[in-house]
Amino acid sequence: MRLEVDSVSKEFAGLRALTDVSLQVDDGEILGVIGPNGSGKTTLINVISGVIPATAGEVRLDGTALTKLRSHQVARAGVARTFQNIRLFEDLTVLENIEAAASRSPRSRGWLRPRQASRDAIELLGLGPVADSIVDTLAYGIQRRVEIARAVATRPQVLLLDEPAAGLNEVESDEMLAVIGSVRSQYDLGILLIDHDLRLIMRVSERIHVLNEGRTLASGTPDEIRRDPGVIEAYLGLEEEHKHLKEEVSPHSSESEARNNPSVDAS
Ligand code: ADP
Ligand code: MG
Q1: d(CA 129, CA 246)
Q2: Which tens digits make up the pLDDT trace of 36-51?
Q3: If exposure means fewest CB atoms within 10 Å of the residue's CB, which of 3, 10, 81, 106 is most exposed?
């Protein structure tokens, strides 16, 4: 399975939210997509999942165009997504929420009954102890996991996650990353993972795609991205590499150099 986004652009009444963006997600791979607020990350997921039409370009799953399909048809084709803001049935239990998603999916109906698909998702996401709890009573970090379980229970081939760690503290974010890693290895599906924290996304992604103002700023392995001058400029600010670079250019003008070296001060 391969998801391809081919030269996709999206305009909203003159505003160019995406310009000529191309990327691929393969089976068993996590592609991280990162960019500042307003860089087009959610728009990218909205276009892929058929929530909004692209202005130009094409989205394909295994060579078949998804671009003209409605969102329920894209879901049926095997692309599941979560939302940046949690969307759950707050008065239902965790299990009921997940089963509702699973039973709507022809994919889970075909070879695995929705109940079993839901049980699998609950186990994988560590939701067993809260399976019968009403969603509304649960901590935010748990609710985010329920969202992912709902998507996973539809047995997708590709999973699109829109900032699953948003609003989580550091410990919860780490847990979320571990969960996303186990979803990938258990189901061998492709994951497009959006976040705005570069360090976080580097830890789980094989490849990273950087958006800036709707355009591709860089794409490559975490190591390549970490060294990319455009990314350093836009994201990492005065990261070590950058500082180092500056000091090489002008060794005695740096403040930190002066602080750390009294002989420079005295001169
Ligand atoms: P991100 O998820 O990276 O923060 P978005 O994709 O949400 O960015 O937004 C990209 C740009 O597109 C922003 O300028 C946003 O205001 C605009 N935008 C997003 N969705 C819509 C919409 N439905 N109608 C008009 N403008 C939109
Ligand atoms: Mg967004």
Answers
A1: 53
A2: 899 999 999 999 999 9
A3: 106
